[in-house]
Amino acid sequence: MRIVHRRPAPRRVAAGAGALGVLLLAAACSSSSASPTSGSSSSVINGAGSTFAAPMYQQWAGQYHQSVAKSVQINYQAIGSGGGISEFTQGVVDFGATDAPMTGTEKTAAQAGQGSVVLHIPMIIGAVALAYNEPGLTSVTLDGPTLANIYLGNVKKWNDPAIKKLNPGVKLPSDSIQPVERADSSGTSFAFTSYLKAISPAWASQVGASKAPAWPIGTGATGTSGVAAAVQQTKGAIGYVEYGYAVQGHLSVASLVNASGKTVAPSTASTNAASAAATYPTDLTDLTFSLVNSSDPAAYPIVTPTYVLIAQKQKDSAKGKNLTAWLKWDLATTQQNGVPKLGYAPLPSKLDQLSLAALNTVH
Q: Which helix H or strand E contains 274, and what residues bound it?
């Protein structure tokens, strides 16, 4: 798979095919396996958006239908954060899901489309892991500037001096680095590029942070599973994925040097460290925040919340009650304690309480 040097849209590869997709479907216990109910339309709730959080939402939806409310079916489509924002704004789905807060323009449009204040409800926390495929390289450490230079096209080989300096004593291959990125509008891309913007002045001035940046180089893939699959299939590849996808796909992941100068691997513990050290907003109508580049010595540096978008005033009262009941169930201690099984981290207690308080304003 060749690197495409270009400014516009990246070359796309097939998304999530093969063994990785099977593993993720097995892990997620997708809600699509549930049978539609025969009651009113309020029993069927549709959502779309984040691929980053899709395994968790799909598992929760299936479990809720099977064990809590058989009359309620939640259908969730993993189409990327940008797609989720768009479909929610247009009223195509009952809730959206995004890892990137809506921009001011997006929020204005969504509120006009919904005829209501739109809430961002934090649901879980996740790490953006740098998965790589280089046979014989069992571990590698990178830092923010080096990572930015890989995606700027300035660091092209696995044995580049910048990587050698971070990995003393490690035999590094001379293979070319093959960067992989999201081709669709993505909250994972927003988290990744937000980190690069924070850590690299060159990235900040040339690319910036965006759900759909103009990538200087690389190969594009659709969805988190698409990036994971492309890395899995390409020698020399590196790509950013939600940590659980790397675990399920048995992909090697890089450790990163954090803001405290410590080398940290992505894990539930290092994700927890970033979220525990954060200060959260108290305005229930705007529970958005960033967790990238935490100063906590134990924190992994690319960590992000993922949000559900919901109208504060529901057009369909019965459906709204079913939707908020499911979301409150997701935020309960039992469900939050189970999220590490899919590679995520639970919300800190103080944030979980804010999410529940925001849901209590929905009517």
A: helix 268-276
What domains sit in the chain, N to C, each tagged with a CATH number? 11-16+128-274 (3.40.190.10), 20-124+307-359 (3.40.190.10)
**What does the pLDDT look like over 20-35, one tens digit per residue?**
433 333 344 433 333 3
Q: Which amino acid is at 140?
A: V
**Token couple for 88:** 């929610």
SS3 at position 122 = strand
Query: How open is the CA angle 63-64-66, to the nearest 5 degrees?
Result: 65
Residues 6+ apart with CB under 8 A from 207: 152, 193, 196, 197, 213, 214, 215, 216
CA pair distance 71, 73, nearest whole angstrom: 7
Distances (CA, A) of 95 to 140, 168, 299, 320, 322: 39, 48, 31, 10, 12
Residue among 282, 272, 351, 359 nearest 322 (CA): 359
What span, in angstroms and rounded, lies between the C-alpha atoms of 272 and 298? 9
C-alpha 71 chain-centroid distance: 30
Query: pTM, whole model, 2 decimals?
Result: 0.89
Minimal CA–CA distance to 54: which of 289, 244, 228?
Answer: 244
pLDDT tens by residue, 220-250:
999 999 999 999 999 999 999 999 999 999 9
